[in-house]
Amino acid sequence: MRDIKELSLKELEVKLLSWGKPGYHARQVLSWIYGKGAYEFAKMSDLPVTLRDLLTDEFYILGLRLEDLQRSSDGTDKFLFELKDGNLIEAVGIPAARRVTGCISSQAGCKFACSFCASGLKGFKRNLTCGEMLDEVLYLKHNLEKGQLTHIVFMGTGEPLDNYDNLLKAVRVINSPEAFNIGSRKITISTCGIVPGIRRLQGESLQVELSISLHAADDSLRSRIMPINRKYPLSDLIRCCREYSEKTNRQVTFEYILVKGLNSDLASAKKLSGLLSSLRLAKVNLIPANPVNGSTEKMLPPSEQEVSAFKEYLFKTGVNVTLRKERGQDIQAACGQLRLKHEKN
Ligand code: SF4
After folding, report:
1. Catalytic site residue from 90, 136, 159, 255
2. Looking at the structure, do residues 174 and 224 belong to the same domain, yes or no?
3. Ligand 1 atom nearest to 157, measured from its CA
4. Is-contact 334 118, C-beta < 8 A?
5. Average pLDDT per 10 consecutive residues for the chain, totaling 345 residues
6. 48 and 189 housed in the same domain
7. What φ, ψ does residue 344 adopt, rounded to 5°?
């Protein structure tokens, strides 16, 4: 059995023609899957029964099963899914004032071992297929408690640029009018700083948002909390981001988790401001820490005064800065925490 979501509209048309069926049914099939959320071909009532049977014999629609769901008092929904091979992945739906964002995993586990992240604690299992990433989007689209899915961020478990080809295939389907029809500017790819992946991305004709997990503005601290920095140090990463924004004319967002006693003092703010000074189109997103069970760093948030002073310093030195409110704190919504809890059990 194959995942039908791995086929483009054109490929599905060719398949139907090979069965002696009209190609136009392909659009109907995709509309049932992506528009109406049908998980069974038998429910596609405007297709001939013979075609529904052929599809059922060769393809499946949804390749995951809901293992757990936690709903936060702030409207955040966290889903834990079991894949066909037993691996567990997470996806989160985050409602805000005028948007609902789906946070999607791109790998089962992660090989990059950032010290503040629960996803890396159990190591890497495998890349997700394009169809499995689309499964997450599909499930969220039809099962959120509040609102309609409007934005997608690849910021769940795994490093999206380490699964480049499947990621790009999924992004194009999410963007496609025949599928989810979510504008490319509403799709964010978040990376720990895979320089060759960013370079490759800048050559695609895509208007997606790029977000970098930065979290430290000097190499010694960043290498300690994000081992990828030993391979792609800050000078390479920032140069690559500058080239990316110059070539695409797109802003790059830098995520910066503020951890008490680690990277939240004014000296760190000064380093951060200096590091980004050569970037014309950059934004810093500050995120006060969310404690992670089992992580190697003590992840306590700084005081509100320290957060304000940090933000104020960046603002005064000309950095475009926002403060992100942590969502779903009552349901272990930080990346990898729910999966970790189930894998320990
Ligand atoms: S932050 Fe991203 S790259 Fe780092 S361990 Fe977590 S999932 Fe992997």
Report:
1. 90
2. yes
3. 7
4. yes
5. 95 97 97 95 97 98 96 91 96 92 96 86 92 97 90 96 98 95 96 97 93 97 97 98 95 95 97 95 92 68 96 97 77 58 53
6. no
7. -75, -30
Pocket test for ligand 1, best of 107, 119, 155, 338 (most atoms within 8 A of CB): 119
Domain co-membership, 148 together with 163: yes
Give me the residues paired with residue 90 across strands. Answer: 80
The best mutation among 90, 105, 112, 121 to test binding of ligand 1, ranked by most ligand atoms within 8 Å of the C-beta, falls on 112
Sign of CA dihedral 73, 210, 91, 263: negative
Q: Which residue in 219, 340, 216 sits closest to 289, CA to CA?
A: 216
Same domain, 26 and 97: no
Q: Please indicate, yes or no, whether residues 34 and 169 belong to a single structural domain of this protein.
A: no
Q: Residue 282 pairs with which residues in a beta bridge?
A: 252
The CATH number for 104's domain is 3.20.20.70
Task: Tell whether 176 and 283 lie within a shared domain.
Answer: yes
CA of 121 to the centre of ligand 1 (A): 10
Q: Is 152 helix (H, G, I), strand (E, B) or coil?
A: strand
- Establish whether residue 51 lines the binding site of ligand 1, counting it when its CB lies within 6 angstroms of any ligand atom: no
Residues 23 and 155 in one domain: no
Last residue of a domain, one of 60, 87, 110: 60
148 C-alpha vs ligand 1 centroid, how far in Å? 27
- Per the structure, how many domains does the chain have? 2
**28 is in which domain, residue-wise?**
2-60
Q: Which residues pair with 2 in a beta bridge?
A: 59
Kindly report the pTM of this predicted structure: 0.93
